[in-house]
Amino acid sequence: NAGVTQTPKFRILKIGQSMTLQCTQDMNHNYMYWYRQDPGMGLKLIYYSVGAGITDKGEVPNGYNVSRSTTEDFPLRLELAAPSQTSVYFCASVRTGYTEAFFGQGTRLTVV
Amino acid sequence: DQQVKQNSPSLSVQEGRISILNCDYTNSMFDYFLWYKKYPAEGPTFLISISSIKDKNEDGRFTVFLNKSAKHLSLHIVPSQPGDSAVYFCAATRGSQGNLIFGKGTKLSVKP
Prior knowledge:
The structure holds two protein chains of two kinds.
Chain A: E1 4-7, E2 10-13, E3 19-25, E4 31-37, E5 43-51, E6 54-57, E7 64-66, E8 76-78, E9 87-94, E10 102-103, E11 107-111
Parallel strand pairs in A: 2-11
Antiparallel strand pairs in A: 1-3, 3-8, 4-5, 4-9, 5-6, 7-8, 9-10, 9-11
Chain B: E1 4-5, E2 10-14, E3 19-25, E4 32-38, E5 45-51, E6 56-59, E7 62-67, E8 72-77, E9 86-93, E10 101-102, E11 106-111
Parallel strand pairs in B: 2-11
Antiparallel strand pairs in B: 1-3, 3-8, 4-5, 4-9, 6-7, 7-8, 9-10, 9-11
């Protein structure tokens, strides 16, 4: 099993550009999450989804959008990149009835 | 306002000795607590958890203690090994499928 797979691993964006961070899980987990981790800080929740077709905002959703058309995929969209979005982004999934989250390896994004 | 606090950014321990990582929380509604371990350039991996109905949970060299009255939990690693060197995040949630709230992490260095 691959678990949670994130692509790309690294990306440099110019201010105002857009991009989509991809996240796929092969564990048939209903719950999926996007977090960001800034240097010296803990992980903060951007968006989450409790199942296909259902998404909701987390603690820091501004500047991002998500969709969940399938159980496996949960892409995160940045429409107008800003330097404040420079961070490491982690996708995670959780099996229904459990609490332990499985994380991807992260995407390191730099906006210049 | 931080709901989960890890007040020690770093901890250095000699191999074979005990490592104690601390975590405090402010939200009395949290009822499930988790510890994650993170190596550089990797996603966090689940280590151990505890429900608020317990005060101790043990898994091999790792033990988590929960003091609900003090809103404090700690992770004990005995004996510490160099491979334990990583950043440890404390996380808390309300309900078994609630969103995880993370602390800022403690970087543990275990010296041979």
